[in-house]
Structures are given as structure tokens and as C-alpha cells.
Amino acid sequence: MSSSHATDPGHVIDRDALYRRITLRLIPFIFVCYLFNYLDRVNVGFAKLQMLDALNFSETIYGLGAGIFFIGYVLCGLPSNLALNKFGPRRWIALMMIAWGTLSTCLLFVTTPTQFYVLRLFTGAAEAGFFPGIVLYLSQWFPAQRRGRIMALFMSAIPVSGLLGGPFSGWILNHFAAGQGGLAGWQWMFLIQGLPTVALGCMAVFLLSDGFAKAGWLSAGERQAVADDLAADAAGKPKTISDSLVSVLRSRRCVRWPAPVARLRGGC
């Protein structure tokens, strides 16, 4: 596909420049959001030693609390993405971030196993739709041939979070070990790492757009160029999964393949 394309007479859209602009507008912010998403998911592991001693939690209590996160994560993934389509990505992504940031921060108030379990369960539920929601959101901006690079940039937040999250969490635990402000080091960690997520969620309302069609920072010609690219993508795909499956089942190769398999099984 050419990097330039005329969307209307006398005006040529430079595709490379257009998608570079979209990338610079969306990806840095989404990258930071996903970095805190991953950090808020795993920071309970960094808090473990101090938290268990302070609350007299056993390894069993901690393990159940850490693992129950994924029950909420699995159960709420699909409903969350249905809600994203219904309410729009800008509002729903912002709401998810504010919710899990608040819940993660509230871990500093935990005193009983039940409180720990409930907060972890609902944190998982709040985070469930973020990753698939962002994947869906980006697919509404970038055609397939450009999407792989964009997803690689987005997902590079995981190793960066691991690279920075460990030392950062360790610094918080050690720096606030004396109990400044009446809070232990592990409590400060949940506070310092949770509140930025809430702030990012509030910023998402203003920095994200509900798709390219509503992006006021793109010209009409640029919006049309993105629409044309995504339409070309859609035209090259089967209309539905069922249509694709039916075409496979109707294939003569599909009909014939059981016969040689049956002969092989009969010879065993």
C-alpha cells in the first residue's frame, strides 16, 4: 500500500505522517497507563514480606488473596469489553483506571483477610477489560499492516514495568520503613503507586477520543484516510466467523481428509 493516497481531488494524505502523528498522540499515554496497570497488578508481591508481618497473615492467606485477583479478571473480561462498546472507550477506559487505582490504593487500609480478598477480587474485575479494551481501541485506529508495530510499542510497557517497578517498589519500602506519617512502607507503596493511576484515569477523559471519527485534532481528510484504510481491511476479511467456517467445511480437502486418516488408524 502506498504511503500517500488522495482522499479528495487535489489533496494527498501522507499515510506515514498521518499514522506517525496518531501514534505520537495515543501511544505514549497508553504506554504509561499500561505500565501502571501492570505495576498495580504485581505490587502486592513486593509488599508481601512487610505486609505479612504487619498483619499476621499466613502464606495461605496471602496466596489466596494474590490468586483471587484472577477470578475477577477472568469473569469480568468479556462484560467489561461489552461495556466499552456500549459507553465508548474514552469513558470506560477512564472508569476502569479510576476504579482499579482506587481499589489498589485502598489495600493500604487492609487489616483482615476478608478485606484483602475482597479488594483483590474487585481489583481484578476492574482491570479485566483494560488490556483487551486497549487492543480493541487501537484496532479502531490502525489498519492491520501497521497494527503489529503499534502493539509491540504498547506491550513493551510490561518489561519496562518489570525493570522499573522492582527498584521503585524496593525504594519505597525501604525509604518509608520507619513509618513516616503513621503508615508502614508497604502502605506507602500502595498509596504512591495507586494514586497516579487514578490521576491517569481522569486524564484519559480529556486525552483519548472515542475513535478517529471523533478526533478533533485530525482534519476531515485525515479522518477519511483512516476510514478508507480500515474499510479496506474489513473488505478483505470474511464477513463472519461462521461464514469462514462454512467455507472450510465445504472444501473438498476437508471432506476427503478423514478417509486417509481412517486408513492410517485401521493399519495401526
UniProtKB/TrEMBL annotation:
Gene Ontology CC terms, in alphabetical order: plasma membrane
Transmembrane segments: 22-40, 60-80, 92-111, 117-138, 150-173, 185-208
Domain Major facilitator superfamily (MFS) profile, first and last residues per copy: 26-268
Major subcellular location class: membrane
Protein topology in the membrane: Multi-pass membrane protein
Compartments reported by the entry: Membrane
Alphabetized UniProt keyword annotations: Membrane, Transmembrane, Transmembrane helix, Transport
UniProt GO molecular function: transmembrane transporter activity
Protein name: Major facilitator superfamily (MFS) profile domain-containing protein
